[in-house]
Amino acid sequence: MTTTQAPERFDPALRNMCVVVVLGAIMTVIDTTIVAIAVHVLGRELDTSLSTIQWVVTGYLLALSMTIPVTGWAVQRFGARTVWIISLVLFIAGSALCGAAWSAGSLIAFRVLQGVGGGLLMPAGQAMLARQAGPGRLARTMAVVSIPAMLAPVLGPVLGGLLLEHLSWRWMFVINVPVCAAALLLAVRLLPADTGRRPDTELDTPGLIMLSPGLAALIYALAQASDGGAPGEPRMLIGLVAGVVLLAAFARHALRRRDRALVDLRLFADQAFATSVGVLFCYSVAMFGTLILVPLYVQIVRGGDTVDAGLLVGPLGAGAAVTALLVGRITARFGSRNPSLVGIVAVLAGLLVYTQVDAETGWPLLAAATFVMGLGHGVVTPLVMAGAYRDLPTAAIPGATVAATIMVRVGSALGAAVLAVVLQILLRHAAPAPAFAHSFWWAFGFAAITLLPALLIRDR
Fold first, then answer.
1. From CA 95, how far away is CA 118, in angstroms rounded?
2. Residue 358 covered by a domain
3. Domain boundaries, position 384
4. Whether 178 contacts 23, CB under 8 Å
5. What is the C-alpha to C-alpha distance for residues 193 and 149, in angstroms, rounded to an integer?
6. Alpha carbon 384 to chain centroid distance?
7. 270 and 154 together in one domain
8. Which CATH number goes with the domain that contains 326?
């Protein structure tokens, strides 16, 4: 469907809010990829085993996952601005303490504090932006808030590699402090006061007891799989079963409680929300699985390092930046459905090149394919995120951001886990290059599945 509606302009209040949210969120996202490449260095510097130091990554991930579900309640009770500022303070404090850590145990504990702040930050920021933007500016606003996720795979490995090569490992954490402190000062000065708070909002304690541990257990099991664990390991199976059981129990509880559940599952009765979240879930499986495979291909097949891997992923961010800048005009002229489908097809076209990789595939061809994927990614993510909130009342937005964030988080972990396991199995029976080519076919298949729910997206 084609429309002639002109995109609404950003007023100063929304522009300021976008700057503050992106500046605060970008380091929380990049921090994950920076630390992930430094596990071996941290183990050596702190004189501990790989299995212990791995909890620097896992502890952050679990704390982040367990904190996300309370965001909707916290935003309703205390206000999105208050929750966002508190979460940023926690992240800054955790970063400074990580930089001063004296042992593996202290570093893991401080990473958990970082994860608590990081888990609240993005959904609270999205809730603020969705309320301020309104339907007419939502797609462009979501394009802005997607910037950190687009830049993380690019900047994280490169920045982490440079810091580890020229400075102490402590700078991986200390570098967060000045950037996030600037965001904090801007937030205090520029963000509007909270309105529409409901101080009497009751916390769904039984739901929290089921949902947060269930989500953490499921993420833990998937993280173990993506880190190379055998699919049949007891801790992985226990985490998977416990996560599924607890999440199923929460779903039953939420549907029976109906009023003020921690996450209102009735939101999925809204077709626009359910369709958009379905696309986000499937797309996260494909995209994050791909972002696991590309750096591994560079390092295992081509003999590169983490900086080389970051440079190959770089065109993804460049392509996404190009189309993200045009999202407002695209959606005003063509709506959401057709541009989303075109974006997914662009991702498929780039992935098709990767299904043909070998040890001699030209770097320019791979960079071009990654750039094409980025062009699609810059359209798909913001348009689908905007579609998720399009028809919801303002009061439902905090709960909707939590539900969407949970689905993206699980989809991302699932994609990384499935593609990592597939690659492990293929590497046992084939040479590295063919194993990666076949693994990229799996990513292609997951991305193709995304087309099915995307076809159900309806334009206004």
1. 11
2. yes
3. 263-460
4. no
5. 27
6. 14
7. no
8. 1.20.1250.20
DSSP 306-363: HHHHHHHHHHHHHHHHHHHTTHHHHHHHH-SHHHHHHHHHHHHHHHHHHTT--TT--H
Question: Do 445 and 313 belong to one domain?
Answer: yes
pLDDT tens over the chain, length 460 residues: 444 455 556 667 777 888 888 888 788 777 777 776 677 778 888 887 766 777 787 788 788 888 888 887 888 888 888 888 999 999 999 999 998 888 888 888 999 899 888 888 888 887 787 777 766 676 677 777 776 666 666 677 677 777 777 788 888 888 889 988 988 898 888 887 766 667 777 778 888 888 888 888 888 887 777 665 555 677 778 888 888 899 899 888 888 876 677 777 888 887 888 888 888 888 888 888 888 788 888 888 888 776 777 778 778 878 887 887 777 777 777 777 888 889 999 999 999 999 998 888 888 999 999 999 988 888 888 788 777 777 777 677 777 777 887 888 788 778 877 888 888 888 888 888 888 999 999 999 999 999 888 888 776 5
Using a CB cutoff of 8 Å and minimum separation of 24, what contacts does 390-393 make?
390/135, 390/138, 390/272, 390/276, 390/460, 391/270, 391/272, 391/273, 392/267, 392/270, 392/273
Encoded tokens for 151: 């830049």
Q: Please give the tally of structural domains in the chain.
A: 2
The count of residues in the chain is 460
Burial status of residue 362 (CB atoms within 10 A of its CB: 0-12, 13-18, 19 or more): exposed
